[in-house]
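Q: Give me a protein?
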Amino acid sequence: MPFRVVVKGAPEAVLPQVHAQADVAPAREAAESMARKGMRVLAVAGRECPMGAEAPSQREDAESELTLLGLVGLYDPPRTEVAEAVRRCHEAGIRVLIVTGDNGATAAAVAREVGIGVPRLHVVAASESITDEELDRLLVEDDVEVVFARSSPETKLKVADALRAHGRIVAMTGDGVNDAPALHRAHIGVAMGKSGTDVAREAATMVLTDDDFATIVAAVESGRRVYDNVRKFIVYIFAHTTPEVVPFLVFALSAGAVPLPLTVLQILAIDLGTETLPALALGRERSEPGTMKRPPRPHRQGVISRDMLIRSWGYLGLVSAALVMGAFFYVLWRSGWTPGAPTGDGAALHHAYTMATTATFAGIVTCQVGTAIAARTDHAALRDIGLFTNPLLLAGIAFELVFTAALVYLPPLQDLFGTAALPWDVVALVATFPFIVWGTDEMRRARRRHSRPDAGSAEPVGPVRSSGRP
């Protein structure tokens, strides 16, 4: 009995198998037109085999001398949130490349629809044939985003290796078994949780439970927020080293002529009591405005930088040290103290000395409050994030102030920590310290914003799409 052979596939693969007498030029133009509109195009062809004919034993024999039956265009629109996610990638200095098995015109149309290819888009129509030299040339041009069309899994692996060789941080997405090597080779492999295979999920570093490209951008922002909050925590902790060390330096350099401005138990009360909760609360700070508009940091940059140390020890720390030492000497001098005068137990100035060390202790705590508020941002102004947007920090500050008041005014704790009740004028003095510490740092950041509006250093980072549909 007669039988029919039906073939479907990419137009560039099917149309050459149509019998020579047929004019396939209109079909090629129609396929290209559909592809330029973002459609995936399939060509359908067939041929009738006469009665008694043997079925072809080879695929090449079956798929020859075909008659074109038609073209099928499939349009899968990108999700509405992808264009915004791509825009945020560009603002953050992230290149988005597409590595896909689709036709180049189809992939390019989809890329342009979601904003990929700004300012320039380069389409590699036959990625399998691209040489290493051509690949290197494309990847080093940071202002070009590339669509690698008609790609195989080996192409994805090749692109990931080339990007790594040029010092880029690579995030590769994929869902199939064949994507696993590229997902494993990238710095960050991102597998699809819904549509992805178990092999892809095992090879990936991160699994998207919603298969949404915008989730990757959200993860980048979350990562930047966590990194920034770790740095804020460090700035806050380091800033108190200076006002805690300076009193001992003054005591040592004066050869005891200036009594010790701070006791060991008071330092422990600061390090283990008052600063702990605000420091932890800084880890829950929201993203600073402009977080996704700054370039990626160099991948060799550590968490602690020179600017952080200068800010902690040189600005916040020195200002705090000057304030607390000023409060210490203010209490002593108002009581008639002179350098070298005895302040030990039984001395006439002993109570004044106890109040002076208490003023130093209370001054460091109030400086902590100003430091905590200042450390909430590295570049932006406090008004941009709002004073009340981190309720945990406000609770931590309230705790340290209550804790400090208990140590200063409750007799059992006074005996334990060597403190004394402070008069109203000293309380009013140390109450200004948070505003001075925060204000000086706010002015420093304002100068930085004026001189370096786009602070940061660029180094391209590339999430590499492995699908024609973001």
The first strand starts at residue 3 and ends at 9. The radius of gyration is 34 Å.
